[in-house]
Specification:
The complex is a heterodimer of chains A (374) and B (256).
Chain A: H1 2-7, H2 9-34, H3 38-59, H4 64-88, H5 93-118, H6 128-131, H7 139-158, H8 160-168, H9 170-175, H10 180-202, H11 207-221, H12 225-249, H13 255-273, H14 279-308, E1 316-317, H15 318-325, H16 331-339, E2 343-348, E3 351-358, H17 360-373
Antiparallel strand pairs in A: 1-3, 2-3
Helix pairs in contact in A: 2-7, 2-10, 2-11, 2-12, 3-4, 3-5, 3-10, 3-11, 4-5, 4-10, 7-10, 8-10, 11-12, 11-13, 12-13, 14-17
Chain B: E1 13-21, E2 26-35, E3 40-44, H1 51-58, E4 66-71, H2 76-79, E5 83-86, H3 100-105, H4 109-112, H5 120-132, H6 148-160, E6 166-170, H7 178-193, E7 197-201, H8 208-211, E8 214-219, E9 221-227, H9 228-231, H10 234-241
Parallel strand pairs in B: 3-7, 3-8, 5-6, 6-7
Antiparallel strand pairs in B: 1-2, 1-4, 8-9
The chains are: A mainly alpha (374), B alpha/beta (256).
């Protein structure tokens, strides 16, 4: 079946296009996420809609070149507006983002409905820029995407250490004399480029997912920036290709949203399973840690209580040991320690609750536990 | 065109008429300040006194509305790379995917120049700087796995690796453990004794006298500046801190 699908020129074009888009936005999304600017991508993407309509109006036809130029222009305008709002008013970044995103998008929707009402048959396709229309991609568009991808890759490689420094600690970079504003602007412009490239395929509404999702997934698997950027590009490309194939197998599955869903699935899997940072891994290691603390720490806690009471055979109440350890050990654990001859059960009238006392062997074990710690 | 004539070259840091304003109230007002070379200087003052703003303004990170700044007679633009800067630890995201040695190598990025990547030499220098702070065993650790004190030491190593004649540190002892504090102060004193100028925003008045030989007392305006033994007086402390002083240290042998 795969061979049948791949025989189709349209499917091949969409597949390659989606994979390239995923790689570009994955690579740039890694920097956007690390700089906490992932939502800026969302504002830029929504702000591209009025540009799409303006490009159509200026060209008078569905000319991709002018439409994408318009999208890039209004996206840049939105980024500028954001910067002005945060610098000149007391509004914080999130509020500025919300304002810019909704205003530009509202203007875009107004323009879109107006153009559609008056623009005749040619304008009908404009609505596809909302959610993307993969089938509209032409083989010639792939060359544009590939070109942009190469430029972005070249810039990221050439300015690798500068981008890394600016993303980690912009103040330090500025104190060192790096042109931080220019470097940050370059990163933002590249994100805007990636968004423009993705408009046809994914649309303005969902584009941000392709920036954030691959980066968020990649971050889970590595602690190195280089690996994260490479993985992010790879996950983006994989999601693009997989989404394109899935949507090609069934009629009526829009490619863009499916690509986004695949990328999101990659995020979920990564959040759950990645070693070190994954939820499952963390739960397991927390459980191992709990199991590991018990024996040694139970003895140490008993020893501490014994010292505090100046009585090596101090009968420690089981509940009190739980409180001292922060978490009650399993009851079977005390029995196991008793079988090993380290503690013994005692009664401490009038309390009916179980009490435990360190044996001589237990005292020695507790002391060596303490030596290990220091 | 840059003015090449030196202005006050005898001072490690010379600040004149510096005024910084965020909105209506000035954060710094008419600061005149001189710090001679080879001292270890504390900048102290109550919360909101403008200590960090003063540092950022001298480094060109905050734009002043008036005044000028010179390091060893030069404008800051001519001194880039020759001033080691240690920002507040909480100013960055420590979950950034990078290692301790990688962060220290960032101190060498400027001297590498555009497009060049750090190589074996940079790695060796970064390791030396980490070793100075007792952090050589943590070089390959992801930075979020370090304790607060260890993170602070990595930050200091990043400034140290530049081998700069002037070091400026913003609250390097805030929230660090006692052993880190001892290591950092010991290193700073050695740097001072080797002729470097060390300028530290400091929050703990009880240790000013034992750690520093020079101090600047700040509360939006300059309250006093000079050798610690001259400046650390009840009158100056009261002028800088006002009522807050009841809760902090009183200079030895003097009641407030």
């Amino acid at each position: 079946m795969l061979a049948d699908l791949m025989a189709s020129q349209i499917v091949r074009t969409v597949l390659v296009g989606a994979a390239m888009l995923g790689a570009i936005s994955g690579m740039l999304g890694a920097f956007a996420v690390l700089r906490r600017q992932s939502l800026l991508g969302d504002a830029l993407a929504h702000a591209a809609l009025p540009g799409v309509c303006l490009g159509f109006l200026v060209a008078g036809a569905r000319d991709l070149g002018s439409i994408l130029a318009g999208a890039f222009l209004t996206g840049a305008l939105a980024a500028l507006a954001m910067m002005l709002i945060t610098r000149t008013t007391r509004l914080k970044t999130d509020a500025a983002l919300g304002i810019v995103l909704s205003v530009f998008f509202a203007v875009g929707v107004v323009l879109l409905t107006h153009v559609q009402a008056t623009g005749g048959a040619a304008s009908a396709g404009l609505a596809s820029f909302l959610f993307g229309q993969a089938a509209a991609i032409l083989a010639s568009d792939l060359w544009i995407m590939g070109g942009i991808g190469l430029v972005v890759l070249g810039l990221v490689l050439a300015l690798w250490k500068e981008f890394k420094l600016v993303s980690f600690d912009a103040d330090f970079a500025r104190a060192q004399g790096f042109p931080v504003t220019m470097l940050e602007a370059m990163l933002t412009i590249m994100v805007a480029l990636a968004i423009v490239v993705g408009l046809q395929l994914v649309g303005v509404v969902l584009m941000v997912a392709l920036l954030i999702a691959p980066a968020a997934a990649a971050r889970q698997w590595t602690n190195r920036l280089g690996m994260m950027v490479a993985l992010s590009a790879l996950i983006g490309a994989g999601s693009g290709a997989a989404g394109a194939l899935i949507s090609a197998t069934t009629r009526g599955l829009a490619t863009g949203p499916v690509v986004v869903l695949v990328a999101t699935a990659a995020v979920l899997v990564s959040l759950a399973l990645a070693p070190g940072r994954g939820l499952v891994w963390q739960a397991l290691s927390a459980r191992r840690a709990r199991a590991r603390i018990s024996d040694g720490r139970i003895l140490a806690a008993m020893q501490e209580l014994a010292e505090a009471h100046d009585d090596p055979r101090y009968p420690a109440e089981q509940g009190m040991l739980g409180a001292a350890l922060g978490k009650a050990p399993a009851p079977g654990q005390f029995d196991a320690l008793e079988r090993r001859g380290l503690i013994r059960a005692v009664t401490h009238a009038p309390e009916p609750t179980p009490h435990w006392q360190l044996t001589e062997a237990g005292q020695r074990a507790a002391r060596s536990e303490e030596d290990d710690k220091t | 065109m840059r003015d090449d004539t030196l202005h006050e070259p005898g001072q490690a840091l010379h600040v004149e008429d510096l005024t910084v304003s965020y909105g209506t109230a000035p954060a710094l007002w008419d600061i005149d300040l001189d710090i001679p070379p080879g001292v270890m200087c504390a900048i102290v003052g109550p919360n909101g006194a403008g200590k960090s703003t003063l540092i950022k303004a001298t480094l060109g990170l905050v734009r002043p509305v008036a005044g000028h700044v010179r390091f060893l007679g030069h404008e800051i633009g001519a001194m880039r790379g020759r001033i080691g800067y240690v920002p507040q630890r909480h100013s960055v995201d420590w979950d950034f995917p990078t290692t301790a040695r990688d962060v220290v190598e960032m101190g060498l990025y400027r001297s590498l120049g555009w497009f060049r990547r750090p190589g074996r030499d940079a790695r060796a220098r970064a390791m030396d700087a980490l070793a100075e702070l007792g952090m050589q065993d943590y070089a390959d650790r992801q930075i979020s796995q370090l304790s607060g004190g260890q993170q602070q030491r990595v930050f200091l190593a990043r400034a140290l690796v530049q081998d700069a004649p002037i070091l400026i540190l913003d609250e390097p002892l805030a929230g660090v453990d006692a052993s880190t504090e001892a290591i950092i102060i010991d290193l700073l004193k050695r740097l001072r004794d080797a002729g470097r100028t060390v300028i530290v925003v400091h929050h703990d008045l009880t240790t000013v006298q034992s750690y520093f030989d020079w101090m600047v007392m700040l509360n939006v305006r300059i309250i006093a500046q000079g050798p610690v033994r001259d400046v650390y007086t009840p009158e100056n402390l009261r002028a800088a801190y006002g009522r807050q002083l009841a809760m902090i240290a009183v200079p030895e042998g003097g009641a407030v």
